[in-house]
Amino acid sequence: MSDHTVLHVKGRVLVGPEETRDELWMVGGRITYDRPAGARDVRTVTGWALPGLVDAHCHVGLDHHGAVDAATSEKQAIGDREAGALLLRDAGSPADTRWIDDRQDLPKIIRAGRHIARTRRYIRNFAYEIEPEDLVAYVGQEAAKSDGWVKLVGDWIDREAGDLTACWPPGAVKAAIAEAHRLGARVTAHCFAGVALRDLVEAGIDCVEHATGLDEDTIPLFAERGVAIVPTLVNIATFPQLAAPGAAKFPRWSAHMNRLYDRRYDTVGAAYDAGIPVYVGTDAGGALAHGLVAAEVAELVKAGIPPLEALSAAAWGARRWLGRPVLEEGAPGDLVVYDDDPRADVRVLAAPRRIVLNGRVVG
User: Fold this and answer.
1) How confident is the model over 327-335, as a mean pLDDT?
2) pLDDT tens digits for range 129-184
3) Cβ neighbours of 35 (radius 10 Å)
């Protein structure tokens, strides 16, 4: 497909959850709803077209050992692209993946810098491991390097306590979030348990990853403050396997992880019912493979979120939350085409017919 090709998408273009158009064109990599005059080289794609899907918790450039090389990062990004995830919020990575921005055939990435964790309180080689007195400085550093997000590790196993505990004192996290906001960045935090949630929300956090510790006390607080969650249910499904090896040495932690797993669907359903914004993220890149966005949408539906809302959490709603366009006039030509209507059955997402990035068919 040459740079001069006009791409014609026809069938049903899902401009919004309830808004459809019969066709659109892509000229110079941008969307237009006006038929281009005099186009000679026109390629037509038919089907149900969605905005490129969003994986709002993804780690390109990272595997379970730490940073990976460019070739591995490229494979990870292609895995997401082939699943239809064309916009990734990279929720922490020690690798420099800025070179991906120059690749027109790879997903667009919104980076949150590198994880910021308490000393010896996270996965080895993933994070900056620091003490509370340095938190503000590191948040400022990562805010300057990122694409408008900073990632904290809010809780992790405390080996002395034998369970998940909060990583940061309230005053330190409040000052750090205030610094990020002063610099124009939003803040998200890894949290499995409930112990850190109130302090983070009262400090002004914008989002929480996983959020398995939400309960009847913190759900109303999240809803009142409009704090979003990205549940990563495909990752939470691994909790029993994570907990089993530690059962003998850390029985409280192991039992806690299993309780969080057992009530995961109830937790996410209750959060949605309370009005907490919920978005799709897979946690790909640590222990999980890339390309699981369709499976995560299906998990949200299993948790009781209506299919159309779960779809929006990976499409229109997620893009607006991240400040990126959907299928609007002049927007980059990033979309996924399916044989059937994904609004009727989200399982359709598992089988993209065509992947289009910057107006070019790439899959």
Assistant:
1) 97
2) 999 999 999 999 999 999 999 999 999 999 999 999 999 999 999 999 999 999 99
3) 11
Question: Please, what is the Cα angle at 229 between 270 and 301, to 5 degrees?
Answer: 55
| Backbone φ, ψ for residue 171 (5° rounding) | -65, -40
> pLDDT tens across 263-279, in order?
999 999 999 999 999 99
* CA count, 13 A, side-chain hemisphere, 244: 4
- The Cα diameter of the chain in Å comes to 72
Find, among 210, 236, 237, the residue nearest to 154 by Cα. Answer: 210
For the segment 211-261, what is each residue's pLDDT rounded down to a tens digit? Answer: 999 999 999 999 999 999 999 999 999 999 999 999 999 999 999 999 999
pTM for the model stands at: 0.97
Write the single-letter amino acid at 245.
P
Q: Would you give the distance in Å from CA 180 to the centre of its chain?
A: 19
pLDDT at 231: 98
Listed in order, strand segments (DSSP E) in 15-91 are: 20-27, 30-32, 42-51, 53-58, 62-63, 66-67, 85-90
CB 282 within 8 A of CB 296: yes
Q: Cβ(157)–Cβ(254) under 8 Å?
A: no
Q: Which residues pair with 67 in a beta bridge?
A: 62
Closest by Cα among 177, 191, 111 to 146:
111
What does the alpha-carbon distance between residue 183 and residue 203 come to, in Å, rounded to a whole number?
Answer: 16
Place of tokens 């359709």: 348
- Phi-psi category of residue 283: left, alpha or beta, with phi > 0 → left and psi -120 to 50 → alpha: left
Structural tokens at position 148: 């408008």
Exposed (0-12), middle (13-18) or buried (19+): which is 31, by Cβ within 10 Å? buried
Q: Is the pLDDT of residue 286 over 60?
A: yes
DSSP 3-state of 79 = helix
